[in-house]
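in:
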């Protein structure tokens, strides 16, 4: 089931944050140079996704240049099946970014044992 997600966009820094859960972020894991996943204290549940240089990332996803002004207008829904999908919608087109549902952080595992 898709649900509309709370999205915050900082146009000056071109950074986009998609809230996945209402839980507090405890740790950020960088999954690529432009994408970081905020995890819950257990270190396994994603609570948010930060996208740096969002206009470039969305340009790659949509296969065309997406301006910062267009990023501001982009809608995002979140679906969860085998992964968490951030489904971006802009001007009638859709592009998705998949994020793993669960993480095994060696740092958090060591801290809790």
């Amino acid at each position: 089931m898709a649900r509309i997600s709370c999205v915050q966009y900082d146009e000056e820094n071109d950074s986009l944050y998609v809230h996945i859960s209402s839980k507090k972020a405890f740790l950020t894991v960088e999954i690529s140079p432009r994408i970081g996943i905020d995890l819950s204290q257990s270190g396994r549940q994603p609570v948010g996704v930060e996208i740096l240089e969002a206009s470039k990332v969305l340009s790659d996803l949509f296969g065309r240049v997406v301006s910062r002004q267009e990023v501001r207008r982009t809608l995002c829904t979140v679906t969860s099946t085998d992964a968490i999908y951030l489904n971006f919608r802009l001007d009638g087109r859709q592009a998705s970014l998949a994020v793993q549902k669960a993480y095994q952080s060696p740092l958090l595992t060591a801290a809790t044992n």
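note: The first helix runs from residue 54 to 62.
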